[in-house]
Amino acid sequence: MKYNLLSNYKLFLVSLGLRPNTINTYYNRMAKLLEGHYLTNGCSKIDVSSLITKLSNIHYKNHFSQSKNALLYFCKCYQISITNKQLKDIERLQKQTRKKYRKSTKTEYPKIKRTIDRLKNKKLKVSYLTMIETGLRVSELSQIKVSDCMVSNEKICFSFIGKGGKKAFSTISKKDNTPLYVCLKDTILYYRDKGLDSKKLFYSSQYLQQKAKLYGFSCLDLRRISAKLEYKKSKSKHQVRNKLRHAKIKTTYIYLNSPVKMKDTITIRGEFK
Predict the structure, then answer these.
(1) How far apart are CA 251 and CA 254, in angstroms?
(2) pTM (two decimals)
(3) pLDDT over 70 (residue 19)
(4) Where are the alpha helices (H) located in 16-78, listed in sequence order?
(5) Within this chain, do residues 14 and 121 fall inside the same structural domain, yes or no?
(6) Of 95, 130, 153, at which residue does a domain stop?
(7) Single residue among 67, 95, 123 that ends a domain in this structure
(8) What is the Cα–Cα distance from 106 to 39, expressed in whole angstroms?
(9) Are 134 and 240 in contact (CB under 8 A)?
């Protein structure tokens, strides 16, 4: 019974157009909240109050926010009533949570540059370079298909589903990074000639993260580097915010103040197929 409920819930999340990673997160959070619930008659026996009590055991903001959203979507999916008092209780509990801080480590861009320059796997190399050039999140980069690319003589524009489930765009300019532009353009046109419009242009999120960890950096490091490179070029915090699509300028300040040792940008020659 619980499996069927969660399966239908997942289909409901998909119908809302949420990102795959977000869907999986909400699914897993909701599964955790339902642990211990013995369901024999669908959703009619679900006690929302007991689920809210489970929320009270979550201490960190991010985890709480994900679980809260998962619960609210679940209630919407199955038309479960939730009272104003219960909503206020959830809001009160959320205010009591705290951020979970991770120890900040120094990111050395010159070291990362040398590592990426030495990669023999051109597709992997281009994946990381594109993240640095565009500031794309790894979950956004990994979903891009050939059909999501618009190619002109001056730039390549990618479309994707960004944070919050909204369609977003990012651009690589020939003027700003000619070698990367040429490499991507040749690859996109190659796949189109082969009729492979549905092919993913880059590696999966999991693969990129695993390989980055193996090489001594993270995909988030590349996004931080992209922020600092953009600020070096534009001298505008708002331009950095627009490029990285931050909801709040405060997040941009965090990125720009992150401990990253900087140097010149990476270039690439050749193409991958």
Answers:
(1) 5
(2) 0.65
(3) yes
(4) 20-33, 48-55, 61-77
(5) no
(6) 95
(7) 95
(8) 49
(9) no
pLDDT of residue 91: 93
pLDDT of 138 = 95
* DSSP tally for the chain: helices H, then strands E: 13, 5
DSSP 103: P
Pairing of β 167-173 and β 260-261: unpaired
pLDDT tens readout for residues 31-76:
999 887 665 555 556 788 888 898 989 988 899 999 999 999 999 9
Q: What is the pLDDT of residue 104?
A: 56
**What does the pLDDT read at residue 43?**
58
Q: Domain for residue 272, yes or no?
A: no
Query: 121 and 67: one domain?
Result: no
Q: Do residue 147 and residue 193 come from a single domain?
A: yes
Residue 23 sits in which domain range?
2-95
| Separation of alpha carbons 77 and 71, rounded Å | 10
Q: Which pLDDT score is estimated for 198?
A: 95
- Structural domain includes residue 203: yes
Number of domains into which the chain is organized: 2
CB count within 10 Å of CB 70 equals 23
Type of residue numbered 77: C
Q: Token pair for residue 21?
A: 């990673």
The answer to whether 109 and 260 have CB atoms below 8 angstroms apart is yes
* 182 & 210 share domain: yes
Helix or strand holding residue 159 (H, E): strand 155-161
Same-domain pairing of 114 and 229: yes
Place of tokens 């001056």: 154
Q: Are 151 and 185 in contact (CB under 8 A)?
A: yes
